[in-house]
Amino acid sequence: MIEPHAPAPPGAPPPWGVQGQARLPVRPGMGRFLVLAGVFVCAACGLVYELELVALAAYLMGDSVTQASVVLSVMVFAMGVGSLAAKRLRPRAAAGFGAIEAALALVGGCSAMALYAVFAWTGDWGGLWANGPRCLLVAFSLTIGLLIGAEIPLLMELIQRIRRQDPGGAVADLFAADYVGALVGGLAFPFLLLPTFGQLTGALLTGAVNAVAGGALVLGLFRRDVTRRVRWILLVANLLVLGLLASAAVLVDDFERAARRAVYGADVRVALQTEVQEVVLTGGTHGRPLNLFLDGRLRVSGRDEDRYHEALVHPAMNGPHARVIILGGGDGLAAREVLRYPGVRSVDVVELDAGVVRLARRDQALAELNGHAYDDQRVHVVTSDAFRWMRGAPSTYDVVICDLPDPGITASAKLYSQEFYGLALRALAPDGRLAVHAGPVSSRPRVFWTVDATIRAAGLFTAPYRAGGRHSGFGAGPDRTAGGASKAPGDWGFVLASRTGVRLGLPPHGPRPRTLTAEALAAAARETARTRVPDLPPSTLVHPRYAD
């Protein structure tokens, strides 16, 4: 039981609301140090939980800015509520802190696995809630925020019980340890936990560290401030939490394989985490079409990739095409179409993820699909961010092909900005052409026509068109619904641009595309024109306009 303070002598400082003097097994100075060390560790774990939720939500739902805003704003709000609620626990600060840390370790450590499990086995989140992904994300953010917010008032109480000081000094000490811990957690997540352990194991490991730190602080330093019964309850609770986290860590590989099969189907051949993204290959053997997923989104489907790549490349080759640069396109499929033209002397492929290029070289099915493009001596690969590369492009090109993710993905927004197209204009030869994948037309016309307006704002003339999209029977990966149907776009939109005017057509003497004719291209351009959204402002680096 906590012993009350003796009456303060005249002129002594007030007890600042402290309930009683802690009975420590160490000297007060060492006790303060251990409490601040606990603050440091708990703050690091708390920030890892936040970043884990942001990263997984962006992976599963896209639009990292929106997901980060939801997670952080809900957590900050919940932390305030948790701080207020913790006032009731101050008389039992040690026991309350121990219970909160055990709960936080369990919820935070298992949050990533729970999110991924629900996603993998429900498919369409809307079947779970009206706005399923965000509801689950908010629930975890709210719970973790409440628990994190309750830590500081209880830690303030505990540190004041060790040695009374003015509230300002105590707050400064606690927040200094808290902010330094947050810095360490924020750096550890992208540079240590994510590349070394992955999202799921990293979260479980963080939960274990959190449970050990919280349990050790209460059961070691403040054990005399709680009853025997409370000590046993906290000990059993922490052991159960550590047991659950350890069991999940042992089973995490089996869980990931089962979840991956639920998400992508039974024929996953390759699943790897590069320094940039998760890469998954399915099919490609025994007559099954090959599918390539990057960060959960279908980027290549063997059923219809030729329609996409022929529509992207061949209209741009209608003119001089000796020097070609492909921005993105690490799978080698756009390069395959470019290399069909005998007049091509060099092809520069600027790809951010070297892991995708390695896979395109070494995986037999993908290399066969891209026609072993990387074995051609005319192809030169540059591992770089496309924006950075274009700022220092060493020469001009007859054809610039932007084979990039959809503009609605936040990480890609700068590659669809007016500034980027200004760099592309600078890299174009006087009679060169720029071909841009601009996202689906039918489902996101405003985004598509914003790309067109942005290219025109950079000083280029444009010719927009589209091609038919995903195979109607395809449903796998995060782009499928609970029933297995596809949510992937129904078409692909493209914009062809040049300095002096655009002649949309196919090269009269070039190789004949397998899926595209000049008549179909002209009809697609007319259909696309009917969807025009007028008077759209361009997208810039400081004002991106591609959010849905």
Label the CATH architecture of the largest domain.
Up-down Bundle
Query: What percent strand?
Result: 5-15%
Order of secondary-structure elements: HHHHHHEEEEHEHEHHEHEHEHEEH
**Secondary structure: helix percent:** 40-55%
CATH fold label of the largest domain: Growth Hormone, Chain: A
* Tally of individual domains: 2
Active site: 403 (proton acceptor)
Subunit structure: Homodimer or homotetramer.
Region (Disordered): 522-548
Keywords: Cell membrane, Membrane, Polyamine biosynthesis, Spermidine biosynthesis, Transferase, Transmembrane, Transmembrane helix
Set out the fold topology.
Layout: H1 28-61, H2 64-85, H3 93-122, H4 132-162, H5 167-221, H6 228-264, E1 268-273, E2 278-282, E3 291-294, E4 297-301, H7 305-313, E5 323-328, H8 333-338, E6 346-351, H9 354-362, H10 364-369, E7 379-383, H11 386-391, E8 397-403, H12 418-427, E9 428-439, H13 445-457, E10 461-468, E11 491-498, H14 518-529
Parallel strand pairs: 5-6, 5-8, 6-7, 8-9
Antiparallel strand pairs: 1-2, 2-3, 3-4, 9-11, 10-11
Helix pairs in contact: 1-2, 1-3, 1-4, 1-5, 2-4, 3-4, 3-5, 3-6, 5-6
Binding site for S-methyl-5'-thioadenosine: 277, 351, 385-386
Transmembrane segments: 33-59, 65-86, 93-116, 136-159, 171-194, 200-220, 232-252
Binding site for spermidine: 309, 331
